[in-house]
Amino acid sequence: MKPIVTAFFHEPTFTVTYVVTDGSTGRCAIIDSVLDYDPKSGRTDTETADAVIDFIQKEGMTVDWILETHVHADHLTAAPYLKEKLGGAIGIGAAVTKVQAVFTGVFNVANEVPTDGSQFDQLLADGETLSCGQMTIKTISVPGHTPACVAYEIGDAVFVGDTLFMPDFGTARCDFPGGDAKALYNSIRKILSLPGDTRLFMCHDYAPGGRDYIWETTVAEQNAKNIHINEGVSQEEFVKMREDRDKELSMPVLIIPSVQINIRAGHMPLPEENGTRYLKVPINQL
Length: 286
Hints:
Layout: E1 4-10, E2 15-21, E3 27-31, E4 36-38, E5 43-45, H1 47-58, E6 62-67, H2 79-86, E7 89-93, H3 96-106, E8 122-124, E9 129-132, E10 135-141, E11 150-154, E12 157-159, H4 181-191, E13 199-201, E14 216-218, H5 219-225, H6 235-246, H7 255-262
Parallel strand pairs: 3-6, 6-7, 7-8, 12-13
Antiparallel strand pairs: 1-2, 2-3, 4-5, 9-10, 10-11, 11-12, 13-14
């Protein structure tokens, strides 16, 4: 099956949101949505999510699933807002509980954020499948960037989250809590063992060298050209490269607000006595 894939690129965070549609029924899934957030003012906006909503409504589609590939550290999810406007159930990999367990400690919110994944409608195990019209969505566990990363295989398309980038940009970092370069190598090899013409859709693109933004490639192209993990790269070589490279990287600009919100499935913290909601900034922790 060849699903219809429509991409929405959010340049401020270099994130791609996908609407994946069964053309025969009009039922669809949304993967990796974005809530606009201004770190200078702490204000949120739904402009990016509204563009997805407008598209789905104009096309007369029905949303079955709002899926996350992982707990993102570079943007806030718009999943609850999309569910309110369009329906559908929010899903994420079952290992999200591991991420919640770490970051409720980092932000000292264990008393208000359960670490059982109950904020999400469905926790997805490796190999678990979902129905969306005549499409079958298969969950593939791909830990490494985080312990909870999953990819979604839908027909001839795989949505890889942050495991891979376009071949000229390489692979994801592994230095967040629970990250593991060896695990990432094995996860990517799992993806790249699929048929060569399998379409791969990235969660991000950074346009290295000033080229145009692109986010679709194939298994064959990644195996041949990925600068970090092509067919000639061993696990030992990859792990050394990844760990050395990660030591030089700074934290993502939005990691502090993003993780606090995303471990809650996109829900904001409860308002305090004055009616205002607050995020925390841990000092010397990240």
